[in-house]
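Quarterly update from the structural biology core.
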Amino acid sequence: MGDTPGAGSLRSLVQLAWLCLFSSVPHGGAKVLEKTFEEWLRYRDECLRRMASEPYPAGLFCNRTFDMYACWPDGSPGTAVNVSCPFYLPWFEKVKHGLVSRRCGTDGQWVTVNGSQPWRDYSQCEDELEVTAEEEGARRLMVSFKVLYTVGYSLSLLTLISALLILTACRNLRCTRNYIHANLFASFGLRATSVMVKDALLERRWGVELLQVADWEALLSHEAALGCRAAQVLMQYCILANHYWFLVEAVYLYKLLIGAVFSEKNYYRLYLYLGWGTPVVFVVPWMAAKYLKENAECWPEWTCLWDLRIPILLASLINLLIFMRILKVILAKLRANQKGYADYKLRLAKATLTLIPLFGIHEVVFIFATDEQTTGILRYVKVFFTLFLNSFQGFLVAVLYCFANKEVKSEMKKKWQLWKLDHPVLCCAQ
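Predicted structure, tokenized:
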């Protein structure tokens, strides 16, 4: 009675999946797809029950069927059969009065295309062309954004690994300040790695070839989403750890500037707890809330995230206050022993620009402009700057606080001189 769900008959469902993945619901493609497939299953089951319960007509007729798109009753030969647009379509409210039609041939067989695929006219059930064009433009823009932040995170990761090797390999660079820098570099590296791993898992999950209904059921099962959810949890932890190592940098520098007397070893352990331990306090309740309230798909970060935005906001605001206090201290010290007004302004500007990436102050600019509050061009501007700054920030921090650091450059110069002395043959050959 119903068609076998082969590759050809599932073509319309595959097209629907892509439409759902890039639907008008911001960043909710996977969630929309899951809901749409559940509605499709309900539509299919209702159709099969109805076909099994209704009596067959006498004489020649086109057999009732479910062609994976719509439910068709028995058709009279040589006529067109019309049914309402299926209710599982995400845009059903727009096309609920539309019809989809098939033709029953004079031989009592449904008209087909190329001898196998069912012919049907579903033009009245399609979404508006203008909306589709807009969605296609948004999809291309999001793909460009993905390329941007993938390049940024990759470059940052390579730079951060090099910086970490330098800080840990050189004994003369081992001090509390550089240990804190190293932990900040590590948090950036883990953040970049977690983002790329999550993207790879999502691409692998949604890029699988789907030939049968069972493939869709397996794809959308909770078991299939476990790896993706684990990557999501890791990414959220790394983002929080990154923000709290910003806070550690701010606290440490503030203590140095105000001249507080303290034991660096004892405080370094507290810094480790603050940087790596505090995120656990927030991520564990977030995991519990997701499991109990939103246990679907990859636990999308775009909903019910205020429990993680609050600790990020808290760390950013504390950093901003410390940043302003440190600038005030620097301003007072520069005024006390300034050599000239131009030199004074240059040093103040340099100190300010150096502290902004170290403390993550740029985060405060967009912290209140949430994804729910921004729409249209403003949303894309926010997404661009957020992705650009977040992905390339690790590269900038590694360059500023390792490769451009006078102490590091001096140490690397000494290492280079020692290497040349140990390898005179190679140096002479050059």
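The longest strand covers residues 79-84.
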